[in-house]
Amino acid sequence: MFKFTKYAENPILSPNPQNDWESACVLNPAVIYDEKQKAFVMVYRAAGFDKQHIIRLGLAKSNDGIHFERSLPDPVFDVDKSDADGGCVEDPRLVKIGDTYFMVYAARAYAPGQYWLQENQNFVMCKDLPGEVISKDSPFFANNNKTVSYLAMTYDFVHYKRLGRITDARYDDRDVMLFPEKVGGKYVRISRPKFGEEGKVKMPSIWLSFSDDLLEYDKVELLMTGEQWWETARIGAACPPIRTEKGWFMLYHGVAESDECYRVGAVLLDLENPLKVIRRTKDFLMEPEFDYETKGFYNGCVFPTGNVVRDGTLYIYYGCADKFIALATADFNELIDYLDRECKI
Fold first, then answer.
1. What average pLDDT does the chain have?
2. Which of 237, 248, 268, 319 has its CB 3.0 to 4.6 Å from that of 241, i.e. a possible disulfide?
3. Around Cβ 85, how many Cβ atoms within 10 Å?
4. How is the chain split among helix, strand and coil, in percent rounded to 5?
5. Can you tell me whether residue 140 is helix, strand or coil?
6. Which of 60-69, 97-106, 121-130 has the lowest average pLDDT?
7. What pLDDT, on a 0 to 100 scale, did the predictor assign at position 124?
8. Which residues touch 83 (CB under 8 Å, ≥6 apart)?
9. What pLDDT score was predicted for residue 196?
10. Residue range 145-196, pLDDT digits in tens
11. Are 169 and 146 within 8 A, CB to CB?
């Protein structure tokens, strides 16, 4: 049985009470190693205690992948309340394709409100906030402020060009990310739309689709759905895939119906046909254990969103209880060998 090693001094990033916009929580970071800067670069989700719960992205960097320092006092990627992603920008994932970094992020038109409080779970409840409430009679209300995923590009992680949405606005779709290179001449998108297709699945699951231009994707095709007890409520991709000699390595999260806790598994996908799962863990590789993972705004959540391989070590960056950012590691070659040897489909 293989398990990740959690950093003994977790969490590696905590809320900053000196900045209102990140005073409540920091979580679910995208992390990538930038060769030009010779540094680990983290773009992280953050929010304060405002009733709207507007979610923004911050920037931090590290020389060793463990000790991160915030780069800016303000958000590096903020909302524009007049735009379609003006309610929140969250859960980024980064890949480098060619010389360009592409960031996929989830967003809503209206801020979600303090979702951990029952009375604030819907944005229409914020009636005392002018400009932040929508009439229940509006046609848009029927859309229920769904999460849509968007694409942006950057060369320096400070300046970004928003390119537009890359998921269907009819479906709540998150856990969206790109493969770091074309497969079969096509860009590949991973997504988790909240729908079943012709009875194929009974829960939010992981789907793939393909594109010629990064923005418009072909019909989604089911990659995998929940199978084990710890993934019976829903599953979703965690971090962008990593190419190995034995297949595309990808972490994913599963949520159990029994305790609603998040746990983490892994798969290997065929290099030429990523719709083919060739290895998959039956047991989870990580679960909530410590206070920073079990006490927060979503208790019992370990949610990886960034992974980097450096000098044979897999660095896994994950959100904890929707409040902190933590680090786990593994010997990457040992992990791939374990998947290849013990996790045959």
1. 92
2. 248
3. 23
4. 10, 40, 50
5. helix
6. 121-130
7. 46
8. none
9. 63
10. 889 999 999 999 999 999 999 999 888 999 999 999 999 999 999 999 987 6
11. yes
Structure tokens at 130: 């002018």
Instruction: Single out the residue of 139, 138, 130, 132 nearest to residue 113, CA to CA.
Output: 132
The structural domains of the chain, ordered by start, are: 17-342 (2.115.10.20)
Greatest extent of the chain over all pairs of C-alpha atoms, in Å: 58
- DSSP element (H, E) containing 118: none
Burial 50-68 (b: 16+ CB within 10 A, else e): bebbbbbbbbbbbeebeeb
Coil, helix or strand at residue 339: helix
User: Which among 190, 185, 218 is positioned nearest to 206, based on CA atoms?
Assistant: 190
For residues 89-95, give the mean pLDDT.
Answer: 98
> Phi first, then psi: what are they for 168, rounded to 5°?
-70, 125
pLDDT at 336 over 50: yes
Retrieve residue 167's tokens. 């998921």
DSSP 8-class letter at 82: T
Please tell me the pTM assigned to this model. Answer: 0.95
At residue 38, the pLDDT reads: 97
- Which run of H or of E encompasses 231? none
Name the token pair of 257.
């119906």
* Span 8-37, pLDDT tens digits: 999 999 999 999 999 999 999 999 999 999
- Measured in degrees and rounded to the nearest 5, phi and psi for residue 222 equal -70, 125
